[in-house]
Specification:
With 437 residues, this protein is mostly helical. The chain has two domains: 173 residues, no CATH class; 228 residues, no CATH class. Helix content is 60%, strand content 6%. The protein is built from 19 helices and eight strands. The strands form four sheets. A two-stranded antiparallel ribbon has the order 1-2. β3 and β4 form a beta hairpin. The two termini are 28 Å apart.
Length: 437
């Protein structure tokens, strides 16, 4: 997974507040229910999905000629984001070597039209509601990438988080996507982008956020990127660290930034005796270090980190100073074969995980009450969450096994959940971190 960049040019003419108000009207009231009512007038599910898809393409939904939602601002937001090298709404077609014409939500609606046949009208309505929420979450992801355009970016990011709360609240389908706007940034930027220079622009802007937002992003980013890079190392790069570094150049500065911030926060939590916070932070730190610890802690950094050597030096100093407490905390995350562990879970691209969750929920006509963030942590620990995480991870792996990707000329599932491999990976990284100079 790679977090992509933002446009470098000004975009102050874009009405961020207008976009927020437009989405809030759609998410906080009964607009979505009325949209589902309107498209569900069709005689069959596939026709209803076609009506829904048409509204997504136009960013406009109507009932009897009266507008229910008008996203007239969406194209302007999308165009200025594209000019900076970032495509939040469209996926990349690796075979055609181009971006797809339709937005991601429409592509999933196309799939649902062809493949899903709900057992009854109630399940059909839920499936349509989930597809509609999937459309709106992409708009929120686009909004999250525009919080720096005007006003206070921290307040703007909080506004997007509040809108996400409406999306995932009682007026919607019940499907969860992310915990906050920081998670939306990760989902919206995990597609392939040809312009890798956009990474640095996004990282520079993230540094303008307050410590709370940067820490939230660091926790989610380190965990998600750690699981993704492990997949890259074990599958895409066939165990070659050199190939992993060459294939993920823009990811390493982001990973270094995230882990350094987490180590600082962990040291502060240790000083004030906050065991719960130490547990939350140490899990993310270990996941972030697991794919390539020597890149961040070894004596010879990869080329991608040489320009930010001061950040890496700070990270190494923090780890050396607090190694004993960190190793102690890491043991609390030792995988239990009978419970869910993010150390057992690896995947190719995070946005495809979200897509898989949505497709399965639409198939079943029942939402998953778990977000992407919930799959890269075992915290908080509870029987209900553990069962949900294990069920969702194994369901996603089942789809991946049924439709494997071709990687290095061989079929391989793009999502893996393997407790035995997770335990071996955990034990190996703890040994390396205890011995690393």
């Amino acid at each position: 997974m790679t977090i992509r960049g933002l446009p470098s040019g000004p975009a102050r003419a874009l009405p961020f507040a207008e976009g927020c108000a437009s989405i809030e009207d759609a998410l906080s009231g009964d607009v979505r229910r009325r949209i589902v009512d309107e498209v569900s007038k069709a005689k069959t599910f596939d026709r209803a999905v076609r009506h829904l898809r048409d509204g997504m393409r136009a960013h406009c939904f109507e009932s009897g000629g009266a507008p229910l939602f008008s996203g007239r601002w969406v194209k302007a937001f999308d165009q200025v984001t594209r000019r900076g090298g970032f495509h939040a709404l469209h996926d990349w077609d690796g075979k055609a070597d181009r971006f797809n014409d339709d937005i991601i939500a429409v592509e999933v609606a196309n799939f649902a039209e062809r493949m899903i046949r709900p057992a009854d009208n109630a399940r059909a309505r839920v499936a349509i509601a989930i597809l509609l929420d999937y459309y709106f979450v992409h708009l929120l992801g686009l909004m999250a990438l525009r919080v720096w355009d005007e006003g206070d970016p921290n307040a703007n990011l909080d506004a997007v988080t509040r809108l996400l709360g409406h999306l995932q609240g009682p007026q919607g389908s019940g499907q969860r996507f992310a915990r906050d706007a920081c998670g939306l940034i990760i989902i919206a930027t995990s597609h392939f982008e040809p312009d890798i220079t956009a990474y640095d622009r996004l990282l520079a802007r993230v540094r303008l956020l307050n410590p709370e937002h940067r820490l939230n992003l660091a926790i989610a980013h380190a965990a998600i990127l750690g699981c993704h890079l492990r997949f890259g190392l074990e599958v895409t790069c066939a165990g070659s660290v050199r190939a992993l570094r060459d294939d993920n150049v823009p990811d390493y500065p982001w990973l270094c930034e995230a882990v350094a911030m987490l180590l600082e926060a962990h040291a502060a939590a240790t000083a004030r005796g906050d065991r719960a916070e130490r547990g939350r932070l140490s899990e993310a730190i270990l996941l972030g270090l697991l794919p390539d610890p020597e890149a961040l802690l070894g004596a010879d950094p990869p080329e991608s980190l040489r320009t930010g050597d001061s950040q890496r030096t700070r990270l190494r100093d923090l780890f050396a100073a607090h190694r004993a407490e960190l190793l102690e905390d890491f043991e609390e995350h030792r995988p239990d074969p009978a419970a869910y562990s993010p150390f057992s879970f690896t995947f190719n691209f995070p946005h495809n995980l979200v897509k898989g969750i949505v497709v399965d929920a639409a198939f079943r006509g029942a939402p998953w009450p778990l977000a992407l963030d919930d799959l890269v942590t075992a915290l908080p620990r509870s029987p209900g969450l553990d069962l949900g995480r294990r069920s969702l991870a194994t369901t996603l792996m089942g789809y991946a096994l049924a439709s494997p990707d071709t990687i290095r000329g061989r079929p391989h599932p793009a999502i893996v959940c393997d407790p035995a491999t997770g335990l071996r990976a955990f034990e190996a990284i703890v040994r390396r971190l205890a011995a690393i100079a």
